[in-house]
Amino acid sequence: MKRRDFIKTTTALGIGLTLSSKAVFASESKKELLPKKQTRVAIIGGGFGGATTAKYIKMLNPKLDVVLIDQHDIFYSCPMSNHVIVGLSNIKEISFKYDILQKKYGVKFLKKEVENIDGVSKKVLFKDGFLTYDILVVSPGIGFKYDEAIGYTKDVAEVLPHAWKAGEQTLKLAKMLKELPKGGTVLLRVPKAPYRCPPGPYERSCLIAWYLKTYKPGSKILVIDENDDVTSKGKLFKAAFAELYKDILEYTPDVNVLNIDAKNRVIKTSKGDIKADLINFIPDQKANDSAFKFGLIPEGKLWAPVDSWTLESTLVKDVYVIGDSANRGSFGTVPHSGYIANSMGKVVAEAIVAKLNGKNPPRPFMMNTCYSMVSNEEAIWVATVYEYNDDKKLTVQVGKAGGVPEQRSKIDKENQYSWANSIWEDTFM
């Protein structure tokens, strides 16, 4: 099978270190875990990017030693997590373990929290030891911009849950919504772009509006957006706002948050103070904290720069950064999304296997597809194809490939479930 056909088929289904000397010297006194006996690719982060990379490297070259590292042994999918919040699904339906990757493909899984990496001696450092590698892939997910100046801290995030990392916070927001009094007010804040899953906040707004309309008569949801307009599928979402939730959902763009009073549940904004019974505050975002700790992000920047062809870090040799923490400006115009992380996993898997075989990495090719529910019965979608452009030296959208539907539909609700099952299977099974 040709490379392009391989990727298309599966998609449808010199060191510049900023590491501290402490990290380098710390590895000298630690014990080695899983002593390396063959060429090894270590992967930090078991989400859509990391798990896909592990699976596809083993598919491309089963002889390579692939170790997937994550501090959790269960992954909770952000795609479809909005369904859990409003009771259309349960948390088990979006939960995945790494058993199949281990048994079917021979991926080794290490449940550990990474303390740091040593890019000089090629070691992943843990509290109780280290793991050596030949190639390292870092796919740690998204990070949040806490801002004490406006009163947004990690403690406040527990009181005003963002639920932008699926799992515990998903359940917390679902519980708070269920306990909302009839006639209550929900406030949802859309973060400033770029952020993980551009259509996600608007899907959640629609589903919460549907929930209020169905189970909490007299209630309403206020959606304040730091952006000057809906950032994805704008026409379709705004049609849903107006046609399905005219008296329930109030959308206001270009709203700057000035202060958060979590105790009294009041948000001070550039357009006035807003008090609500339940606040779903989705914060502005950046690369995951670990990417900063690993020395993969330049001082004063928020995302990890990578080579536009291979996705190798421009700061640390033989370390590749994929998923939400990678700097889109350095390699292309793709969004932060689970589907893109999955696509990036395939691109980097091919690049790594080619490199280890002494060959040139193939041309990058990615796809992004995303479905969004606007009620319990109807959904919308967007699909885009990306390919490397030699003139721009970036991965950019291919002409008119992909697109969006003209209107929401019931059939796309069913298609959404097929889409979700497809990416879950492609990543974890």
UniProtKB/TrEMBL annotation:
Q: Which Gene3D superfamilies does UniProt cross-reference here?
A: FAD/NAD(P)-binding domain (3.50.50.60), Flavocytochrome c sulphide dehydrogenase, flavin-binding domain (3.90.760.10)
Assigned keywords, A-Z: FAD, Flavoprotein
UniProt GO MF annotations: flavin adenine dinucleotide binding; oxidoreductase activity
Is Flavoprotein tagged as a keyword?
A: yes
Determine if Transmembrane helix is one of this entry's keywords: no
Limits of the Flavocytochrome c sulphide dehydrogenase flavin-binding domain:
362-428
Q: Where is the Sulfide dehydrogenase [flavocytochrome c] flavoprotein chain central domain?
A: 170-283
- Where in this chain does the record put each FAD/NAD(P)-binding domain? 40-141
Give the range the annotation lists for the signal sequence: none
Q: Which domain of life is it from?
A: Bacteria
Any Pfam family matching the protein: FCSD_central
Which SUPFAM superfamilies is this protein grouped with? FAD/NAD(P)-binding domain, FAD/NAD-linked reductases, dimerisation (C-terminal) domain
PANTHER family hit by this protein: FAD-DEPENDENT PYRIDINE NUCLEOTIDE-DISULPHIDE OXIDOREDUCTASE, PTHR43755
Q: What is this protein called?
A: Flavocytochrome c sulphide dehydrogenase flavin-binding protein
